[in-house]
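Same chain as my last thread, 204 residues:
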Amino acid sequence: MIITTEEDQIRLGNIADTEYEIYALLKQRYSPRIFREEKLKSGHIRQLFEAARWAASSFNRQPWRFIYAEKGSEAYDKMVDCLSDFNKSWAVNAPFLLLTAYKEKTEDGKENFHALHDLGLSLGNMTTQAQYLDIALHHMAGIDWKKAQKVFNVPEGYHISTAIAIGYYGGNMEDLSEDLQESELAERTRMPQKDFAFKGEWQH
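reply #2:
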């Protein structure tokens, strides 16, 4: 591989150093805070939601819901305003923002204990599809969900969960503060398997 640009260096440096070989798209995925200044193609947007659509879900309830907006729109500005101050500082680099939500109860009015699990599965599908399209997703927990519920008229029974900054990989590192530039280039780490995968019984 010939490294020719800063973007190439960042992409190469962010490939996961896995202990065991896994699917290439999973190794290549990371969560940048910079993106190319390019609108998402409408076909790519539909592919992302189609991938989410076909995620597994308990009893096929498909409790996930999404609200999205493109940079330059009033809805986009409203989404940014619902983010934590830290996320506001860089998420405006993304050409596309997404709010995720889930339906809290089943069709018979009982709490859907697995709704968040199913939302996560749908976002896993979306994230992998995005990687295939050279699109990056940066999932954010830092959002004022109560404010977002009101601003976007989310009906009772549905719960805003997270926000996601989305765009094509690339962008200018100079758009970030020095601290965030360092974070962007930091070595990626994960806990070892022995700390979360236990054979036979809980071991910690």
